[in-house]
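Annotated sample (chain length 303).
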Amino acid sequence: MGVPSRRSAIFLISAMLAVSASGAAYAQQPDQADGADPINVYGTPPADLAGLPKGPAIEGIISARNSGKMQVTGADETKTVIVLSEGTEIRGRGGFLGLKRDALSQKSLLNGLPVTVETVQWGDGLIASRIRLRNTDLQTAAMIRNGTAQGFAEQSAATEALRGRVGDIDQYNVKRTTNVYFDTGRWQLSAQAESEICATAREADGTNNALLLVVGYTDSVGDEDYNQVLSEKRAARVVNYLQQHCRWAPYRMLTPTGMAEADPQADNESDEGRAQNRRVSVNILVSKAVDGLQTAQNSPSNW
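Output written by the structure step:
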């Protein structure tokens, strides 16, 4: 553990600016995403999809969800409305090597969930014949939805303010940064990393009104696109461990982000330097306004 440098704090500005708006939208889990195109479907979709012409495969994030249909937004921001029927098969993938397949209900299709959808054509529209997703993605989406709904009702006004949009890192004091490290091209956690992550969660839990910000990084090996995905996978793995094993509440966490090769801790020209750059930073943040009030309350003049 260590207190971050001014340089690291500057890089956190871009991380938090990038995720603040998306984090708020994702955590709310509305039935209809703000600004989403209306979903209008006429007629009753057939339960038997056999014989219907095959449609395109759609991959993306569920960005709107109403009874009987959903909207999926792809990486290129293309929005596709897809009808659900009794014949739609929904499968979650997980377990060892991803070989386990679980049959799921339409209630599992939460906003913000990454999905791959096989479709058939129905009139001028599409019906989902099969929807595939990862069980770990579903668990995270469900925890964020349930945690937000339950957690915000219990939060004080000060903590509510902390979960508002973050405009500048200068609004926060970074109380502590813990870095956990990874092997080349990997995002699996070591036993030491797991221990350090939970120790950080315990420290944050003992800090009034603390939030966690998780940021993933890579060394300079590999191309930019690969490293971006790798840094996001590392950050996601730490977030999952924080929530599932360290019992850190989702509503006390800012949306994680991957920063790829940005903000290296050491020179990427050596093996030792690259090893230091393959990391995820877990940052304990407290609003300066709230932190200042706590400091004043604890000062000798107030005893």
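Annotation: DSSP finds seven helices and eleven strands in the chain.
Annotation: The two ends are 32 Å apart (CA to CA).
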